[in-house]
Design goal:
- A hairpin with a 4-residue loop joins strand 17 and strand 18.
- Helix 8 packs antiparallel against helix 10 and helix 13 runs antiparallel to helix 14.
- This protein is an alpha+beta fold.
- It is globular and about 75 Å long.
- The protein starts with a helix and ends in a 14-residue tail after the last helix.
- Strands 15-12-14-13-17-18-16 form a seven-stranded antiparallel β-sheet, sandwiched between helices. A five-stranded antiparallel β-sheet has the order 5-6-10-8-9.
Length: about 475
């Protein structure tokens, strides 16, 4: 059957107008935020129900057509890129919060629900959905589950998998499974729900997710602290963790701050400029908590770990301090950054960062290197900016060489080559630096069980 005939048959499975093949749609829906691979899907299909998703998967099995799931397309590992003539399955029209249970504190979401949509829904109910990151306004719950998204609150609340009570998924054969049934305690063998979280759509597609909610935090307060060097950040973390229950602990370099201030819409936190900055957040529920934070700040200054700092005194100031960290990724995207999202255990972070920073600077002194990340959970974002003199292809080729060296250091420290962005296509050739050959073999075997025809997001996590 020709491609044109296949697409005509696909159109019969969904509502009129819900299969697109025009060039603009193919380019838009065939990519994510990465710039490594050119999008080249053959069609975009927009199901509106679980039954339509099942029909699409069964059709793809019959004709051996590869499917790529598409959510908010904010991913940074090319997991949602269709570069080889696949059909993109967009969940934009499966975007409803279907149920709310106030006693269980759960919300049943379709996969196209925007992260901020769930956050706002929880807030309206006097509750809180804590998984948060810069792309919350456009990322979708299905994509968050597919990559086990983390973000800025992991130190307190954990990753997306901590908030998934149950899933309904369509496997690679078109079968519908209901996983865990929203139970808190369920000791009945393998938890298949957890297999689908972080699987990047390679086992099947999430069609419903029951998400847990939490109590709303009270009087969130942030501090931004300037440190004389990176080594000072870890004792600052240790000092504050000993006194406060932190909801976040982030860091960024002075070079990152320069890029943010150049935007012109966020003020500097204070006059002193320092090489690195820590941003921490906590619930100032009482005057005693606020006083403990200030006393800990003074202790850090006395120890020489902190040179200057500020604590938010209003909701607006809290938001402005967070913009210093959250605007970094969007701001530097215009410089064509090569991103690495790496992690080690928290205690190893200083030596780990020093090794990688030395490696990159010694081999590529003309590259501008920006560091930031969720240091409270051991997650560092290494961003290398493209020099104007290099073409994109030349730059990415040079960074591929850097990658090998960086991941050798990751392996040395028993770390992860992808802390929260997934593997996709950008990291698939490096998976062996974090996973053993035996582990990868078992992972491939699991995929073969759920997706025997190999149609579900092929070429992601593992090479084709």
């Amino acid at each position: 059957m020709t491609t044109a005939a296949l697409i005509e048959e696909l159109k019969t499975l969904v509502e009129p107008g819900k299969v697109l093949t025009d060039a603009d749609s193919l380019a838009t829906y065939g990519k994510d935020w990465t710039k490594h691979f050119a999008p080249a899907p053959c069609a975009i299909v927009f199901p509106k129900s679980t039954e339509q998703v099942q029909a699409i998967v069964r059709w793809a099995n019959q004709h051996r057509v590869a499917l790529v799931p598409s959510g908010g397309r904010t991913g940074l590992s090319a997991a949602a890129v269709a570069a080889n003539g696949e059909v993109v399955v967009s969940f934009d029209y499966m975007n409803q919060i279907l149920e709310f249970n106030e006693f269980d504190r759960t919300a049943v979401c379709q996969p196209g629900v925007i992260t901020q949509q769930l956050q706002d829904f929880a807030e309206d109910k006097g509750l809180y959905y804590p998984v948060d990151f810069a792309s919350a306004g456009s990322s979708q719950i299905g994509g968050n589950i597919g990559t086990n998204a983390g973000g800025i609150k992991v130190i307190r609340y954990g990753m997306t998998r901590n908030w998934v009570a149950g899933l309904k998924v369509v496997t690679g054969t078109g079968e519908l499974l209901e996983l865990n049934k929203d139970l808190i305690k369920n000791a009945t063998g393998y938890d298949l729900r957890q297999l689908f979280i972080g699987a990047e759509g390679t086992l099947g597609f999430v069609v419903e997710a029951t998400m847990r909610l939490d109590r709303a935090p009270r009087n969130l307060t942030a501090m931004v602290l300037g440190t004389p060097d990176f080594d000072s950040i870890m004792p600052v973390l240790h000092a504050f963790q000993g006194k406060l229950d932190l909801t976040a602990f982030e860091f960024f370099s002075d070079r990152c701050l320069d890029k943010i201030l150049d935007r012109g819409d966020v003020p500097a936190p204070f006059e002193t400029r320092t090489p690195f900055y820590a941003l921490l957040e906590f619930e100032a529920t009482t005057e005693e908590v606020a006083e403990a934070a200030l006393a800990t700040f003074e202790h850090c200054v006395e120890q020489g770990w902190v040179l200057d700092g500020v604590m938010s005194q209003s909701e607006q100031q809290l938001q402005n301090l967070w913009k210093l960290r959250e605007y970094i990724s969007e701001t530097i995207s215009h410089f064509t950054p090569y991103k690495n999202d790496i992690s080690v255990t928290v205690s190893k972070v200083p030596a780990f960062l020093a090794d990688i920073d030395s490696l990159v600077n010694s081999n590529y002194p003309d590259f501008e290197v920006l560091w930031y990340g969720h240091i409270g959970d051991g997650n560092l974002h290494l961003n290398i900016l493209k020099p104007d003199a290099l073409s994109k292809d030349e730059f990415f080729a040079k960074c591929a060489t850097v990658n090998k060296w960086v991941f050798e250091v990751v392996q040395k420290y028993n770390g992860s080559i992808s802390a929260e962005h997934g593997v996709g296509m950008t990291k698939r050739d490096y998976l062996g630096y974090s996973r053993s050959a035996a582990e990868i073999g078992y992972m491939k075997a699991i995929k073969a069980v759920f997706d025997p025809a190999g149609i579900m997001n092929p070429g992601k996590i593992f090479p084709l």
